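Researcher: Next sequence.
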Amino acid sequence: MTLPVSRRMVVAGIAAGVATRVTGAGRAARGGLMSGFAYIGCRTSRERNAKGDGISVWRIAADGAWSRVQLVRDLVNPSWLAFDRTRRFLYTVHGDGSEASAFRIDPATGELAFLNRVTTGGRNPVHLMADPTNRFMVVANHIVAGEVKSGLATLPIAADGRLGAPVDVVALDGKIGPHRVEQPFPKPHQVQFDPSGKFIVVPDKGCDRVLVYTIDGGGKLHLVEAAGAAARETSGPRHVAFHPGNRFAYVINELDSTVVAYRFDPASGALRPFQVASALAEDFTGNSRGSEIAVSRDGRYLYASNRGADTLATFAIDRATGRLTLTGASPAGGKTPRFFTLTAEGATMFVANEEGHTIVRHALDPRTGLPQKPVVVAETGSPTSILLSG
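Model: Next structure:
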């Protein structure tokens, strides 16, 4: 399937972060395996030595075997993927570019049909997520381009799934961090709603801070100034994950591979740090970058991926205090684990190894939460995100 591509799209990035329900997709109870569909985003730009070809759609059989059913080509860097709240449409941002695309999902086959493409009001969009009303897609634009500052945007979602032009574009300002290469300006890296849907938490890699916003009924974004929190210099906050009880939030810092634990006030949106923990084994002395973070559905474990060390950190969570204890740094099963996701029942983790060009399955030990022996389930160029239908 070949789709129209804007000539102005240089390098684009999308990835995926919201689990989806597709008719005919479900979970297999045996052995912790799931069945259904998986959607893989990737990098395609050859100047970044990427080897991806577009968004690939995979059918997962009841025995855990993956088989590709569609490749949506002619997309530049579809590196982050997200579903809308009805789980009938899939969206992607185009990294290093300035656009987002919308697709309709066939509920029987899982295949994607292109709907439209719009500007994100900024450059290098890296993350997007639908607001709780499903009327707007919120986007993080990661890079300054000319007079356009990095920041956030809201795109209206039509009833047929198409995206509209931005109704609000918010530029970020602030004191940048000291890293000469990675922190030249504010770099919002994620727009994550808290479990209540009231607040949007925005880790800012460029200014070593975590911001908090709200969105009103017209799609306008409002900074909650008293709610945000500063991070250590040169830590580079990247992604955030919430504890199921919505009392704690955890941020993975990209530049120093640490995790910060915050107390989260669901009434005010305030974040208050109380612990910093390394996501690396204590004997690791090389270079590594933190990437993805997730909390298990039962709230017992937190996971973080490290690019460079190529490991998956497992933390035990004290559910009374929220404090973390590192219990393992397991091999990711490939090079550069940029992204991972947990299955709905929580028994399995899938990892996208960007420079290993593989999707790897890890069973999670039910007693310790630790990832077990990695199994390659798919080979695909430069994967950067995974969306599961179950």
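Model: The radius of gyration is 19 Å. Residues 1-30 have pLDDT under 50 and may be disordered.
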